[in-house]
Amino acid sequence: MSGVGAGGGISGGGAVTWFTAAADERFQVAASVCGTWTVGQHVALDAVQENCDCIYFPNPFLDDLPTVGALIAPRPFKILSARRDGSFPPAGYHEAYQLTRRFYEMYGAGDKLVEFDYESAFRTLSLRQQKRALVVLFTQVVDDAVAKMLLLGCRALSRRHLPLVVLFRDLDVDGLLRPVRDDRNELYVRAAAAELARWRGGFIRDLRHGGALVLDVGPKELTVKLIERYFEIKARHQL
After folding, report:
1. Distance of CA 169 to CAs 9, 115, 216, Å?
2. CA atoms of 12 and 225, how far apart (whole Å)
3. Phi, psi of 144, deg, nearest 5
4. What does each C-alpha distance from 12 to 19, 54, 63, 86, 186 come to in angstroms?
5. Cα-Cα end-to-end distance for the chain
6. Residue 154, Cα to own-chain centre: how many angstroms?
């Protein structure tokens, strides 16, 4: 067997991806989803109680997860995590990535280890793309944490580039804003939809004030509207 990839599920599956790829070199690429940690951060942040035994490996030598990563190197490996995951906090998966990267760099394969992270994506783009460019970001932001991250990233990008944030409208939420009947339950639902619309409008204003262009569009309109906006940008010599 050759050319096999190890792609675990979430949590336990993500942890087992580390172990499987380390134990079997026939796996040529691997990606762990929400299964990355370090002992120190898990203990310090009291995250051990959030996990079951499948997350940890028999460890008589008191090694940490990056040691497992040393056995995966230099094969391509992607680490995907969630910022609000109490079982695998950011401090732990960032530390695991940084420590594992040292082993990859010993092989001259630092680019083969990738951590999926919004902030690092913005930093990498800023470093690698020196010439002013149109940067199109497709997203559907629904919470303050991600919104703040995107705002900071767009402000940093706008110093050199022109960020265009494409927000996908939730047409179901838009439909809830239109009254159908006057009963108490619908009033509650409509009020919640109105609050979400208000928050979304504020987020769009903040993006524009931060130097980004915004295309707020339904999925079916995306292609036409995006092409139209591109030609508009070119006509106005904004690049």
Report:
1. 29, 28, 6
2. 42
3. -65, -35
4. 11, 6, 19, 14, 40
5. 49
6. 15
Dist. CA 214–CA 154, nearest whole Å: 11
Q: Are 188 and 212 in the same domain?
A: yes
Q: Which domain holds residue 41?
A: 4-116
Task: Decide which of 239 and 69 is more confident.
Answer: 69
How far is Cα 1 from Cα 54, in angstroms, rounded to an integer?
26
Q: Is 87 a member of any domain?
A: yes
Which amino acid, one-letter code, is at 153? G
Helix (H), strand (E) counts: the chain? 9, 7
Q: How many CB atoms lie within 10 A of CB 219?
A: 11
Give every strand in the sheet of 77-80, ordered side by side: 4-10, 27-33, 77-80, 113-116
Question: Is residue 121 one of the residues assigned to a domain?
Answer: no
Structure tokens of 110?
A: 């630092």
- Token pair belonging to 21: 């790829």
Q: Is the pLDDT of residue 237 over 70?
A: yes
Six token digits for residue 122: 């913005």
Q: Which helix (H) or strand (E) holds 219?
A: none
| Residue type at position 226 | L
The larger pLDDT score, comparing residue 24 to residue 144, is at: 24
Across residues 118-135, what is the average pLDDT? 81
Q: Which stretch of DSSP H or E encloses residue 78?
A: strand 77-80
**Which of 51, 82, 116 is a domain's end point?**
116
pLDDT of residue 127: 80
Residue 89 DSSP code: -
Q: Within a 13 Å sphere around the CA of 212, how many CA atoms are in the beta-carbon half?
A: 26
